[in-house]
């Protein structure tokens, strides 16, 4: 990753670092709908890291989120390829250590005493002093200063300015207001950083596009030390079913010795590739919701230009915007209910479908949503899997050769497979297998070769081979599981299988080279 895109906000905001080299800050005010719309913005824009001030605690208590000890700031790493060396939740802020950037997500309430404000700010800046040239603070500290463009000042700004002066830091704000409620505009969402990080900031913008929060979305484009990175254009592969079906019918299967290779070649010849972005919307977002959101933003821009004028048009715009917000809220809730009902209905037909994936995702709530540095991963693996010179035990032959598959079993296996499942490494899809199963010649040829596929394992000349006998399904027939070569200077079965392994009938030692 060569750049960070962050989305951040304060008081009621959120921060995020995206797959594109940009950072953004949001303020969501704990509102669930504000969180939903903000999450859509993050997903659709390919955000790497989200930092939310005053988050919706119920949502952020789920898997993937990191909350500070007071639950006033939440962080979500959306890009699993993003390396995060350290995450430290504290009271009122969270510290994240990225390869060349230390991010501090902060929130300090406007209702706390000035003594508490100074104590919290001292703790943050004392931590920043450990590595000030690589650090950036993003959040809502509820302080107003001309340093970041506020036309009014308060008691807190002087203490913040003292720390900035001591560290030689600057504010990255471009002077635009970050909070807007009626005719009131304030600059309370700030981005503070060192001169070196500030020179890497290529853009800093504010967009007031979330109907359910008064705070704007702050976008920060930061160039990292690794240089610029180009985002690969997504490729969509489409199977021309009619072309593939005709190719299967015209192929000479009687003289074919390698059925799998022939099938794969015909499949690849029937594939066309198209450029196009994949759907990055949340599951409940649809075109109707998107159109309502765009219409609201269009009216909001008109309202912003005309609100200084006390006219009937401004009053009508306010009423129309209120109606649109209400309709958008209803559309989001209706879409979520419909998707939930569909999910429950599908459970009767497919218990291993989307419902199963959601349940297992919740069971794996402790799984890291980001990538650890390479050195740390190697250290963990070395501790978990220490090297040893102990003997591996003994092996034994388990069972006789299995019965070959029948043609009917193959057809039933293909019919039971569900489409739109991810293909294997060769790219052969379930749709292609279903089309292939409709050709009687192909099914008959597969049935003839089943026995040899099940029985034969390739023998390498350098060691022992373990052959994993395929289960009774068509995928194993078309793609026999590869043999596993284990090189050994003393080719004995004891070198291959541990003594404490219980033989279940799936492993068979075929011989040595």
Task: Provide structural commentary.
The protein has helices spanning 32-44, 57-60, 114-128, 155-167, 195-200, 241-250, 259-269, 287-306, 312-347, 354-363, 374-384, 407-416, 430-437, 440-455, 474-478; strands at residues 3-8, 13-18, 23-27, 47-53, 65-67, 73-77, 86-89, 93-97, 102-107, 135-140, 170-171, 179-181, 184-186, 189-193, 201-207, 217-223, 235-239, 271-275, 463-468, 484-487, 507-512. Residues 7-21, 227-231 and 451-513 have low confidence and may be disordered. The strands form 5 sheets. Strands 1, 2, 3, 4, 5, 6, 15 and 16 form an 8-stranded mixed sheet that branches. It has 15 helices and 21 strands. Among the domains are: 3-223, Endonuclease/exonuclease/phosphatase (Deoxyribonuclease I, Chain A), CATH 3.60.10; 287-349. The chain is α+β, with helices and mostly antiparallel strands and 513 residues long. The chain is globular and about 85 Å long. Strand 12 and strand 13 form a beta hairpin. The relative contact order is 0.10.
